[in-house]
Amino acid sequence: MVHISRRHVLASAAAAGATALLTSHPAAAAPQERRTARAADLSGHDPVTVRWLEGGVPAELAAGTTWGVPWPRGAFAPEQEFSLVSDAGEAVPVQSWPIGWWPDGSVKWTAHAVSGADPRAETYRLEPGEAARSEAPLTVGTSGRRVTVDTGVITVTFRRDGEHLVESVKRGETVIAENGRLVASRQDKPGTERAEVIRSESFTGVVDEVTLEQEGPVRAVVKVEGKHRKGRRAWLPFTVRFYLYAGSDAIRVVHTFVYDGDPERDFVNGLGVRFDVPMRGEPHDRHVRFAGQGEGVLAEAVRGITGLRRDPGEAVRQAQVAGRATPDPATWDQRVTTRLPYIPAFGDHSLRQLTANGFEIHKRTGRGHSWIRADGGRRARGLAYVGSPTGGLAFGMRNFWQLHPTELEITGAATDTAQATVWMWSPRANAMDLRFYHDGLGQDTYEEQLEGLEITYEDYEPGFGTPYGVARTTELTFWALEATPSAERFSALADANATPPLLASGVEHNHAAGVFGSWSPVDRSSAEREELEDNLALMHRYYVDSVDQRHWYGFWDYGDVMHSYDGDRHAWRYDIGGYAWDNSELSTDLWLWYHYLRTGEADAFRLAEAMTRHTGEVDMYHLGEWKGLGTRHGVMHWADSAKQVRISNAGYRRFYYFLTADERVGDVLHELVDADRTFLVLDPGRKYAEEPFDPDPAALPVGKSTDWGSLALAWLTEWERGGDEIAHTKLINGATTLAALPNAWAQGGNVTYNLEDGRFTGPSEPSVSIGSLSSVFGLMELMTELLDLIDDEQVHAQWIRFCRLYNSTAAEQREETGSSWGSLNLRQAYSRATAYAAVRLEDDALAARAWQELRTGHAGYPEDHDFTAERVEGPAVLNPVDEASLSTNASAQYGLAVVQCLALVGDHI
């Protein structure tokens, strides 16, 4: 691969044009300069109401909560302080910082954090002003080998090296947990093929680097990076972030690992996070808790003294069941006291969620003895506890049943030290089998592979269906509790673990801030609007329900939806080539995020959130030569040989980043700044190429629409975040040089891309080459935002012309560009392009045309389409399901078209 330094780009003569533009845009200055140079001429802003996403007042928080708020251009300087006041008038300590900037240097997005230790209210008022100080602000200390965070309630010590990411978690002088470490194991053969000999080995995570990303006063963030090691082998790289909040006894953890093994011999059969928990008191004063479904809690003691042949006494029994210290055994019925050694102590407990629809709890006295079944249920909330009345550890995993096979395990609770393990992949399940799902079917040549594409829609190529470099992120929570919690408090902790409460600003404020382009709040003020709003709501609800009805769950699958439906089988085409998992095809992620922006609905946010976590990790490569590329839709998320930036698209992740300030998604967004380098190692058009692939960094075959739009969304986001300057340079250079082509984004001929500075070069004579997919992977949304941020007449004019001409007549296209654009598809999707041109040109005829294009429904849903679903029962199907005449491609593009037409030309409906 050719290596090109990004650090020297501004010094090159080729970047001169971009440099000139940079000098006219304050956002191009270094981040520190921007923060200090724009204080004048700011308008300020009225207080903003924020409320809990799920409504009401949550009983517990997962340590604390962090959320993002947008602001109109020119409202605040980045150094603006904010205060938070509850609806009862109580000042709440809040930590605030900027995460996005407008081109004039004013703050576009701020992030805010509050602790779970502070009193909670239903709503809060966020306003400029000095933040209230916590009575016990969080403090951080660093030394050569350690980082220590003191929340005022617990003290957590992190190691900078070795196998223990967390050295200890103390509450006062009491060690609640210690030796926090990552554990993993592999086997050399799958467990499903009855191999005579299967060899296994275990690995432990080893720390390579620790970074203190934030240090209070309300929130601290510690990032730990490393790999799992045994002997000479180091693999499964990880990034683990620990979040601690002032006054809280909880630790939120975001765990990411990347698979970098050989799928033919590296079958991961266990992946977890483990702590040692010192045990105090007698076994009958040691307690175990598991959260089930709903409000259910299984509460047991390591050595039970209820239900015995002899009764120790009612006070003793009640204390043990409640988790309190039992009275002095001398006060018990001595027929029990003298026989305590003969009562088995069950030191090991396990809750195993091996499917989305069933968990079982087992326990045993210890290693070498049989497990006995304690109970079971359907969907556990993913929280366990081990400890005593003098303190213990609650430990859990979010989306526990959705990301099966998972497990919460306690071992050694009858000894001096118990081990508490969150298994993100349970060792009780079959090992991960990430091998390709078929043998190639004889598709050895490009010609044969293209024939296969014609029948199953799968773009197969040997060696391309690899999981090497895909990732998964999991969220966990640990509470260092001063005593065994009551059943009610433990259930509340389980709820916070399962659905971490999140604060959010309202729909109207977010819209008024002018972020994310063309969208508007739900409006049912007329019959025509109401019909469209009903269609959007019914369509969205169908996908929310389908996730559960179709069981789109599992470690590698949860968060995605399917691409196309098979009406004959009453099933989504889960087993047919490119028709199976959607993998962001035609911007499903965008549609779901815009639905949340318009409605503010919690289930809309959670569906889009799960998709962001999935598609930004599993559907994208984070290591290897394809780092920065995503995989086209298929039976396995990494199966298809089309590796594309249109799937790894930053535009699909940036919503979640700005709404939550999530650092992991921020990592993914930053990775994509250099995704254009992948065009040096992989030719997207290789199966149609007539010449051998010999990439020239100064003349790469980067598509001017689908490819560039995806790359530019990464650069736009990096520019907004005040990151690497090359992002802004390439963003501006790309837009201006594309606009300079005779037919701009529709130009045909040999249009090439310069990796050094992001410029395009093409023929001086007009010709046309355009496809229906050109703008449906975020290009329209990108340009809507970009044209509000830059002042370049040619870029504005050429993009508006493109939007106007796509759905125009062949005669109009020939008159302006010299050629007809052909029989283009997805005309309903491009109605939003027509609407955009109508607004920019103030053209009522174009506005009317946009609505006509939407209603006609070409390659989408016409106005008489039935959006309702019908129930299908057995024996026609395995489980009762709702069935509707919908496909995900059409749903995503219809949703985006309706949202943007309503926002742009709603007054012409």
TrEMBL record:
Coiled-coil stretches: none
Residue ranges of domain PcRGLX/YetA-like C-terminal alpha/alpha toroid in the record: 500-908
Signal peptide (UniProt feature, chain positions): 1-29
Location of the PcRGLX/YetA-like central beta-sandwich domain: 139-494
Keyword Signal belongs to the record: yes
Keyword Endoplasmic reticulum among UniProt keywords: no
InterPro entries linked to this entry: PcRGLX/YetA-like, PcRGLX/YetA_2nd, PcRGLX/YetA_3rd, PcRGLX_1st, TAT_signal
Keywords: Signal
Pfam families linked to this entry: PcRGLX_1st (PF19501), PcRGLX_2nd (PF21345), PcRGLX_3rd (PF21346)
Span of domain PcRGLX/YetA-like N-terminal RIFT barrel: 47-128
Taxonomy, superkingdom: Bacteria
Protein name: Tat pathway signal sequence domain protein
Organism (species): Streptomyces radicis
